[in-house]
Amino acid sequence: MTTLKSKLQEDLNAAIKERDELRSSTLRLTLAAITKEEVAGKEKRELSDDEVQKVITREAKKRREAAEAFAQGGRPESAEREKAEGEVLATYLPKQLGDDELNDIVAQAVEEARAAGAEGPRAMGAVMKIVNPKVAGLAEGGRVAAAVKKMLAG
To answer: Residue 121: CB partners within 8 Å, gap ≥ 6?
Structure first.
């Protein structure tokens, strides 16, 4: 069975052969981040696919934040580059939930939390506890929190 890490490695080799600079440099950096994580503990270990996915998610988030920062700083070329790298990484992640899907999950969780007696500001934590496992890896934390806040306020 191919691991996610070996798939990244194969895709990197293919990208190098095809002289696809964007893909190869993005995958190279991501594999470096994975390796760094593997040697971070007391002893070197192989990351599971789930752990590799977390690294990719983190790398993709860095690209998104950098793209925003560059865009605000008036550096559109750099912003485009970061965005493009983020898109390369997105192909290795589960498809992100659309706003409608996310709102449906949040609405359901709000009802569950209310039924369990969670009210007011305390409801936020209760709702997040219900929502998080359902959307893990499918929506970014900040996006989820914003949706929950909006739903509780409304």
So the answer is: none
Alpha carbon dihedral 36, 41, 45, 50, in 10-degree steps, equals -70
CA distances from 20 to 17, 25, 78 (A): 8, 9, 18
Among residues 135, 17, 22, the alpha carbon closest in space to that of 86 is found at 22
Query: Closest Cα to residue 32, out of 2, 18, 52?
Result: 52
| pTM listed for this prediction | 0.75
Q: Which two tokens stand for residue 34?
A: 């994975």
Question: Per-residue pLDDT tens for 2-28?
Answer: 899 999 999 999 999 999 999 999 999
